[in-house]
């Protein structure tokens, strides 16, 4: 974000009242915690701290405890009495002052010492961006608007999209190298744990899970903060040169993640997170608590899709939104689109009733749409059964040729029989 105080035209009166939302400072941030790295610059518009008494529990009318909360204000460009006030929320990170470079420093602001009639505009990045959006939604009468930059407003249960995006952002070549590094690190942990942790200057991480999370975050940082070349270029070059990939990655982790960003290994140590004494790294502990309990940002690895499952849904079926509607290589998904394509159309046809549960595809407004998906089903079944030893492929091939000429229920019955010969002594008729 540009320096609003320095870049604003002289005709626009502005004021900054900046508030810290945490009581401890942090030298760097954990990328999976969504925080921006702290500024390494000593150039501040002001470092003059101000304090007020903040309510500890805003939800209880009986809890009157308070704590001291810090903020900063910059008034040099402000034209009294009716100038707009820009409130920049610092979020879960601590701030040391109002920096010249707003791209590198999270700042936080709250209305204070000002006429309530002044127009307010709220800013925030990442988690603070979410706070700025929520503030605007809850108190529209107090603000003119909000800039919610990269605002993480959604609580995502089973947050697998995070890691999937890393794979997409890395691209095929870099992703492949990272996957190879992961495999190599796993192998070396099993054969010589001390040596591999020493290579990354991470011997204090006794728990292998903590260590692997540290390595994963180091890679994430490059993409989250717009430095993919810092990671991918040297790794791809090392791969082409036949160099040790784990050593190449360790060099990146130590020089960029630990060096340039100043991320401390100890913040990944479970034992460190159990300590309640306030230190320079307490902000990490507090944020982990939020991630794992309140805001549901904890990232988990995508599940293994290699399950060979075909998902089908009718376009008019309201239940399809509770099903899988996006395809993946081993879990294809098809939407049968027509005016009366409802629940189970591929198996039951159209329309359905208690007396005729199977229906008839000919009664669907677009029989071709149904038969097209049925043919896809046959192709997948034919392929997957051919990959099983003794799958009875010839029987399925006959069905595939006649798939559009027979009721789908009989098709499934024949397919099921072919498969049941592999799994059981006698075929089992499925309940359709």
TrEMBL record:
Pfam families noted in UniProt: Peptidase_S28
Lineage: superkingdom: Eukaryota
Assigned keywords, A-Z: Glycoprotein, Hydrolase, Protease, Signal
GO biological-process terms attached to the record: proteolysis
A GO CC term assigned to this protein in UniProt: vacuole
TM annotation in the entry: none
Signal peptide feature range: 1-28
One function term, GO molecular function aspect: serine-type exopeptidase activity
InterPro entries xref list: AB_hydrolase_fold, Peptidase_S28
Family: Belongs to the peptidase S28 family.
Protein's name according to its UniProt entry: Serine carboxypeptidase S28 family protein
Origin species: Buddleja alternifolia
Lineage, top ranks: Eukaryota, Viridiplantae, Streptophyta, Embryophyta, Tracheophyta
